[in-house]
Amino acid sequence: MPNPTGYLASQIWLHWLVALLIIPQFLLNESMGQAWRAIERGQEVTPSVLITAHVVAGVAVLALVLWRLVLRLTHGAPPPPASEAPALQMVGKITHGLLYLVLALLTVSGGMAWFGGIKASAGVHEAATSLLLLLVSLHVLGALYHQFVLKTNLLARMKRPG
Question: Which of 41, 68, 144, 157 has the fewest C-beta atoms under 10 angstroms from its C-beta?
Fold first, then answer.
């Protein structure tokens, strides 16, 4: 695998695009929850703009995450800052791996629940939503810790190609 010094422009754009798509997913979550509970009660659910937006954004997130994975496998990712402790490097690798896994799991389980009516998938989707919130928080806190405490200028890697 290549060992680049920075991210490609496409990797950076995909990172921020996925982030921008995930934010409204949390905001639209209640509409989907209400619709799902109505389905469980056997009630008819009229499609709404919020439901459609949640589904479309979920499909887009899956496509973009898969694209990001392909780029990461073919072009690699820059190494962590040289000054970073091995334990922090391991936390970063695990967090990034789990972010990819949970994003894929969320979209697939949501689709299986919504389109397939699989109740267990809805439970997985709900649990994965909480896990994603935790992982995103850890990711953001880690980036801020690098930027302002360790002063590694790590955030610059997600601003411009290297």
Answer: 41
Q: What is the DSSP letter of 153?
A: -
Tokens 């109505």 sit on residue: 38
Torsion sign across C-alpha atoms 98, 25, 39, 52: negative
| Alpha carbons 71 and 63: distance in angstroms, whole number | 12
pLDDT tens-place string over residues 42-79 = 999 988 999 999 999 999 999 999 999 999 999 999 98
The closest of 61, 60, 47, 51 to 30, measured between CA atoms, is 51
Q: Which amino acid is at 92?
A: G
Residue 19, SS3 per DSSP: helix
Q: Are 49 and 95 in contact (CB under 8 A)?
A: no
Residue 21 to residues 28, 38, 93, 142, 146, Cα–Cα distance (Å): 11, 25, 23, 21, 25
Domain ranges of the chain: 9-158
Confidence category of residue 26, pLDDT binned at 50, 70, 90? confident
What number is the average pLDDT over the span 132-156? 94
Tokens of 53: 């937006």
Residues in Cβ contact with 157 at an 8 Å cutoff, skipping those fewer than 6 apart: 6, 7, 78
Query: Counting runs of H as helices and runs of E as strands, what totals does the chain give?
Result: 5, 0
